[in-house]
Amino acid sequence: MDVSFLGGPHPQRGIGVVAPFDFALDRELWRWVPDEVSLHLTRTPYVPVEVSLDLARLVSEHETLAGAVRALTVAEPEVLAYACTSGSFVGGIAGERAMCEAMTREGAVAAVTTSGALLEALAELGARRIALVTPYTWSVTRALEEYLVEAGVVVAARAYLGLTRHIWKVPYRDVADMARRAVQGRVEALFISCTNLPTYDVLPQLEAELRVPVISANQVTMWSALRRLGTRAVGPYQALIDPGARPGASPLNPPPPQGLPEVPPAGPSAGPPAGPSAGPPAEGGGWT
């Protein structure tokens, strides 16, 4: 049978992805990418350590990165992404930059990390005051806050689950509950951390409910990598990937009439760390 009329296969552009050994959301990464882009994934070697700062350091060692990058370069990806939030923030700003440099030394044409992509996404959204949601323990959550503070980002409130394993099994309802607890007072965005935490389907719903841009680890990783290919992530209507969904871009959110005083913002209260037992969400969260 002559199949020459099919004209394919169509050319594909590649993104190489280095993920921790316990990463379980390959399908979620694929949902962000357009049809003309392929993902080439590899995982770091297994280590018998629960999710912690120790694990973050182990899966981000430069020797580990070097082996993964060398394996991926066989597929000739145009961009290489390190898909782990904690592994890319555990060394601070300097550590994240050193990871990108280590990857490019091993042959990556362009390199991004989840935590670097997070800062890039916040800059794109103009968000410097955010709420934070994580599945981590308090020590890992605090390390993420320290990374953000180093970058000049204010964490106004947070909620976290305290998990050390099986993060990929957390249901959307738990992610949504944490988001509602975390968005207190006026914030300019909400970040949901951890590439192993399912978020794809819940993001647009949370944006509509909370009235702030909502971004997640897998989303910013793919968005940043695809930007370097000159293309964009795909997904439901949401602020990061669709500028029309951003605060101030919609006629449904007009500025206050001229001559009338603006209502002063409610005073945000970071308060003590909000873990699984955090109180109910604050009312009145709006686009800022």
Tell me roughly what share of residues is in helical segments: 25-40%
**Spatial arrangement of strands, main beta sheet:** 2-1-3-4
**Oligomeric category:** single chain
Q: What is the number of beta strands?
A: 8
Radius of gyration, in Å, reads 20 Å
For the termini, the CA-CA separation is: 60 Å
Low-confidence stretches: 250-288
Reading the helices and strands in chain order gives EHEHHEHHEHEHEHEHEH
SS-derived structural category? alpha/beta
Shape: globular
Overall average pLDDT: 87
Largest sheet: 4 strands, parallel
Task: Output the keywords.
disordered C terminus; 288 residues; alpha/beta; four-stranded parallel sheet; 10 helices
Please give a structural write-up.
Residues 250-288 have low confidence and may be disordered. It contains 10 helices and 8 strands. The chain has helices at 26-32, 53-59, 62-72, 85-89, 92-105, 114-125, 138-150, 172-182, 203-210, 217-228; strands spanning 13-19, 37-43, 79-82, 111-113, 129-134, 154-160, 189-192, 214-216. The longest helix is centred in the middle third of the chain and has 14 residues, at 92-105. The strands form 2 sheets. It has a 4-stranded parallel beta sheet with strand order 2-1-3-4, with helices on both faces. Strands 6-5-7-8 form a 4-stranded parallel beta sheet. It has 288 residues and is of the alpha/beta class. α3 (62-72) runs parallel beside α5 and α6 packs across α10 (217-228). The radius of gyration is 20 Å and the shape is globular.
Condensed summary:
With 288 residues, this protein is an alpha/beta fold.
